[in-house]
Amino acid sequence: MIKADFHMHSKVSDGSFSIAGLAKLAAGKGIDVIAVTDHDTLSHATQIVPGLPVRVLAGIEISCFDYEENVRVHILGYRIRDIGRVERFVKPLLEKRHENSLKQVKILKENGFSIEEEKLKRADGKYIYKQHIMEYLVNTGQVEDMFGEFYQKTFKNGGICDFDITYQNPYQAVEIIRESGGMAVLAHSGQQKNFRLIPELVKKGLSGLELNHPANSPDDRKQIRKYGEEYGLFLTGGSDFHGRYEKTEPQVGDFLSEESGVRAIFREWR
């Protein structure tokens, strides 16, 4: 059986490892194939170099929100042929996130923190995420750790930097992926408790569900399997690895795709 981790993030979005670094980690765990599913970009599709120790596929994780149901939704996309079409759909997210981060930097500076914007790391060399801000504050000795008390009080729980952007529509995201020749998968639905959206997402072209994920509980996985059987959806899995840019971090290969997901995403890949 092919061992596949179909959900991880690189430096092209909010991961701390390069694509080559992810491939090396995966090879050390005996993984056969990985999918880099960076947030709201497919730029990494042109950055996967030959000669890596495992097969690396380019996927995407589109950040969405159903504002009628008031629930977050993340849509994974695989086997996308028309990359340009998807990139045009997600580019506003990258730009809004970057502007949001610059606003957070401004507020932090007004509250006594010293931040040199030109020294902040940037996703794909362009976009600042809050993880980059936190890393800078830790590295310069202004904050003790990435996800401790300061982070919770500042970026969460009504803190001075606790504000967000407007996200894409999940049904449109599924349609765009499908119309671009790809396969859309609902990510970690146990974490975001958006099971009720599955029937409508299927109507828009949803192909699969992410079963094996660190945030899906045993009860969540039972429910995901039930929906998969009812709607004929394949099941995937992945570690959602971010490296040091995540508070609780499963390792590459800790959560693997189900066989049905491997067949759909990898074995039929041409």
What does this protein look like?
With 270 residues, the chain is of the alpha/beta class. The chain has nine helices and seven strands. It has a seven-stranded mixed β-sheet with strand order 1-2-3-4-5-6-7. Strand 6, helix 8 (218-231) and strand 7 (234-237) form a beta-alpha-beta unit. The longest helix has 28 residues, at 83-110.
Distance between the termini: 19 Å
* Average pLDDT number: 95
Number of strands: 7
Beta content: 15-25%
Radius of gyration: 18 Å
Would you tell me the structural class of the helices and strands?
A: alpha/beta
Outline: globular
| Number of helical regions | 9
Q: What tags apply to this protein structure?
A:
270 residues; alpha/beta; 36% helix; globular
Write the layout of secondary structure elements.
Blueprint: E1 4-8, H1 19-28, E2 33-39, E3 55-66, E4 71-78, H2 83-110, H3 130-139, H4 149-154, H5 170-179, E5 183-186, H6 189-192, H7 198-204, E6 206-212, H8 218-231, E7 234-237, H9 259-267
Parallel strand pairs: 1-2, 2-3, 5-6, 6-7
Antiparallel strand pairs: 3-4, 4-5
In a few lines, what is going on in this structure?
With 270 residues, the protein is α/β, with parallel strands linked by helices.
